[in-house]
Structures are given as C-alpha cells and as structure tokens.
Amino acid sequence: MSLYATPVGAALPFVLRYLTYLNIMHRDKGEFPNMKLMRIHALICFATVLLSAPVFGQRTTGTIEGTVTDPSGAVVPGVGVSVTGITVGFERTVQSNEQGIFRVQQIPAGTYKVATTPFGGFTATTVENVAVTIENVAVVNIKLGLSGAVSEVFVTEGLAGVNVDTTDSRILTSITAKLIDELPKGTRFD
C-alpha cells in the first residue's frame, strides 16, 4: 500500500503546501520566518491528520452473499436476487454470477427479505428475516424449487440473538434491545 493511500499520506501534500505558504508570506514581508511558529503549525497540521485517521476506518454497513443452487445442488447462474429491507427502507436487485454466487454489499444494518425471481423452470424462492449487522456477512444459500412448487424459508436467530459468521474468525456481536431484555436479571437483597 502506498503512502498516499493512507489518510496521512493523502493530507501530506496539503500540509506541505500550507507550510510553504507560511514561509513565503513571511519572506515577502521582509521578515525572517519564526521557526518555532513554523514547527507549531506543522505539529497542529500533523496532529489533525493523525487524529482524523480512525474516522476513515469506520463502517456502518454489512453484506448479504450466498449461492443459488437447483434441487440437485448444481449452481444456477443468472438468477435475479432481490434484497428488500423489512426494518429499513432498502431494496437492491443483483444477478448470480457464473458460479451461482450473488453478493449485495453496503447494506444498512437491519432485517431483510431475500427473494429470487422465477427463472428457467425454477420457482421464486423467498428467505425471510435475514439479519444484517455492521461489518458482517450474512450468508444466504438459496435452493431453487422446480416449477409448480412454492418455497419459503424462515430464518430465526440463534440463542440470545447472536448469529455465527462461519466466514470470519472475528468474535463480535451487535447489542440489540432484544439481547438486553434477555439478559439474566439480578437478585435484590434487602
């Protein structure tokens, strides 16, 4: 990764240009630039850039991905997959690629419905209650049914509202109101 790909590297040319401007401004007035003042300006510029760097790393979205297969388990490319927010106002439609994989990125945290469109002898399939949390990937593998049958799958959360992401080794969870309500209550001793 190059220096200019980081927040510090991106701001470096602006800081140097500002310091050069201060030097020229003092020289044009016939004054010798105060080096102590120049160092203070440089320190303030670099501190501002360094303290703002963590802001660039914050994410507020998640991802839904999965594989579309037929009843025999073979992948099905070109299937339209729509993601509709149940608890948020979000809707996006994508198609599965040559390997039958679909991916919808930058989805606000919430609960979603994932549905396929009828495709080449297969029925529409719907997966309800897909929970998307910040910086996590919700895996939704869809098995298409043959024409003439309607398939709906309802996904429920695990114990205490904690979902296990098998594609990532990080340990984290989103604290929800439901999770707080399900915490054991203490005993009061008077």
Describe this entry's structure for a reader:
It is a single chain. This protein has 190 residues and is an alpha/beta fold. The protein has 2 domains: 55 residues, no CATH class; 117 residues, Immunoglobulin-like (Sandwich), CATH 2.60.40.1120. The protein has 3 helices and 9 strands, in the order H-H-E-E-E-E-E-E-E-E-E-H. Helix 1 packs antiparallel against helix 2. The termini are far apart.
- Report low-confidence residues grouped into runs of 5 or more: none
* Strands, count: 9
What letter string, H or E per element, gives the SSE order? HHEEEEEEEEEH
On the 0 to 100 scale, the average pLDDT is 75
Structural class: alpha/beta
Largest sheet: 5 strands, mixed
List the helices and strands and how they pair.
Blueprint: H1 7-28, H2 35-52, E1 61-69, E2 80-85, E3 91-95, E4 101-108, E5 110-116, E6 125-132, E7 137-139, E8 142-143, E9 151-154, H3 177-181
Parallel strand pairs: 1-7, 1-8, 6-9
Antiparallel strand pairs: 1-4, 2-3, 2-5, 5-6
Helix pairs in contact: 1-2
